[in-house]
């Protein structure tokens, strides 16, 4: 089954083309990474797929639903963690997660909040105002809100930002276990090592153009994802998107 599908997706901001005719398919259960330099169109892609931005042209489906025409339907079924978004400074983590649970109609909110606070090690901060939390603590709260309603598809923009090395490893384990359970994860990153370690498929984006997709596990042993990435982004625009391992 297909979790995400795009056809000729294009986004223009005046004279700037942020996304150029993106054709992309992500299957159910995949841990898909969109890899590219800053400004390559990764965040724009996520904003369109999560119904936050209307593309200039083209179409997309997320879990079989058009995110442009039915954005609320899509957002009710997915989790989203935007890059560098914090819980409101005037709320505690508990209050913020209670608010998120109410919006989603969760009846067992306190159990879920407690479970995720323990899983991401912020139990002792549940009743601390967000303005008094560290960047890493705020990121943990945002990770919790993306997953605690048990969606089948989660979008994450730079999943490990502001996390200490120990929690990074714990989050990596959770993301992999989440997909092994049959769920789908779409993450964007400009860190090649994150994509290589976590992802079952990687799409390489440069200046709004999808240059290639690959399964990092099927690359030849002498070629790392970094080498493949560099050879792809430094080469000429291909006539057709190369695909390895699909």
TrEMBL record:
<keyword id="KW-0813">Transport</keyword>
<dbReference type="InterPro" id="IPR027417">
    <property type="entry name" value="P-loop_NTPase"/>
</dbReference>
<dbReference type="GO" id="GO:0016887">
    <property type="term" value="F:ATP hydrolysis activity"/>
</dbReference>
<protein>
    <submittedName>
        <fullName>ABC transporter ATP-binding protein</fullName>
    </submittedName>
</protein>
<dbReference type="InterPro" id="IPR003593">
    <property type="entry name" value="AAA+_ATPase"/>
</dbReference>
<dbReference type="GO" id="GO:0005524">
    <property type="term" value="F:ATP binding"/>
</dbReference>
<feature type="domain" description="ABC transporter">
    <location>
        <begin position="4"/>
        <end position="232"/>
    </location>
</feature>
<dbReference type="InterPro" id="IPR003439">
    <property type="entry name" value="ABC_transporter-like_ATP-bd"/>
</dbReference>
<dbReference type="Pfam" id="PF00005">
    <property type="entry name" value="ABC_tran"/>
</dbReference>
<keyword id="KW-0547">Nucleotide-binding</keyword>
<dbReference type="InterPro" id="IPR051782">
    <property type="entry name" value="ABC_Transporter_VariousFunc"/>
</dbReference>
<keyword id="KW-0067">ATP-binding</keyword>
């Amino acid at each position: 089954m297909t979790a995400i599908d795009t056809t000729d997706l294009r986004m223009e901001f005046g004279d700037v083309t942020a996304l150029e005719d993106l054709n992309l398919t992500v299957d159910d259960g995949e841990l898909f990474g969109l890899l590219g330099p800053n400004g390559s169109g990764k965040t724009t892609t996520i904003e369109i797929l999560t119904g936050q931005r209307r593309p200039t042209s083209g179409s997309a489906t997320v879990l079989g639903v058009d995110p442009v025409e039915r954005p609320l339907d899509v957002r009710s079924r997915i989790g989203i963690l935007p890059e560098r978004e914090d819980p409101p400074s005037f709320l505690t983590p508990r209050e913020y997660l209670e608010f998120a649970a109410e919006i989603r109609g969760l009846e067992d909110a306190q159990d879920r909040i407690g479970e995720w606070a323990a899983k991401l090690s912020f139990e002792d901060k549940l009743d601390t105002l967000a303005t008094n939390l560290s960047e890493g603590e705020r990121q943990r709260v945002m990770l919790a809100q993306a997953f605690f309603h048990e969606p089948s598809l989660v979008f994450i923009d730079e999943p490990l930002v502001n996390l200490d090395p120990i929690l990074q490893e714990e989050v990596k384990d959770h993301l992999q276990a989440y997909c092994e359970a049959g769920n789908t994860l779409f993450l964007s990153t400009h860190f090649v090592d994150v994509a290589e370690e976590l992802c079952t498929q990687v799409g390489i984006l440069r200046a709004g153009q999808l240059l290639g997709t690959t399964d990092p596990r099927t690359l030849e042993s002498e070629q790392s994802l970094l080498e493949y990435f560099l050879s792809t982004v430094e080469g000429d625009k291909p006539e057709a998107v190369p695909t390895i391992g699909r």
